[in-house]
Specification:
The chain has two domains: 1-42; 44-99, no CATH class. It has three helices and no strands. The protein has helices at 17-41, 45-73, 76-90. The longest helix has 29 residues, at 45-73. The chain is elongated, with a radius of gyration of 22 Å.
Length: 99
């Protein structure tokens, strides 16, 4: 049931049917692990913590790492290199464009 509830994501922000089915299958796999953990321990808080950690790690990897990398690139020599390359690409200084 938990996996099937994710079918409602179809069409949300342009999500395709194939992507939705892949998500449902992945969530069902996770749900089996959480159910086994609950049935083995008899404690609901363990699968809840596991679910939180999976969501947290996913968010850090998908959002946090690229964000920190982008901020890091905005300082020091890295920024100057990007500005120089922007000038070359846009041909702002009368030089030949790289494109």
């Amino acid at each position: 049931m938990f996996g099937l509830s994710h079918l409602s994501n179809f069409g949300w922000h342009g999500e395709s049917f194939t992507a939705t089915i892949a998500q449902v299958i992945g969530v069902m796999g996770s749900a089996f692990i959480w159910a086994e953990l609950y049935l083995y321990t008899g404690k609901l808080w363990l699968p809840m913590i596991y679910h939180f950690l999976m969501d947290y790690i996913y968010t850090v990897l998908i959002v946090g790492v690229p964000l920190l990398f982008s901020i890091w690139m905005l300082f020091g020599k890295r920024r100057q290199v990007m500005e120089d390359n922007t000038d070359l690409i846009l041909n702002l200084n009368g030089r030949q464009s790289m494109i």
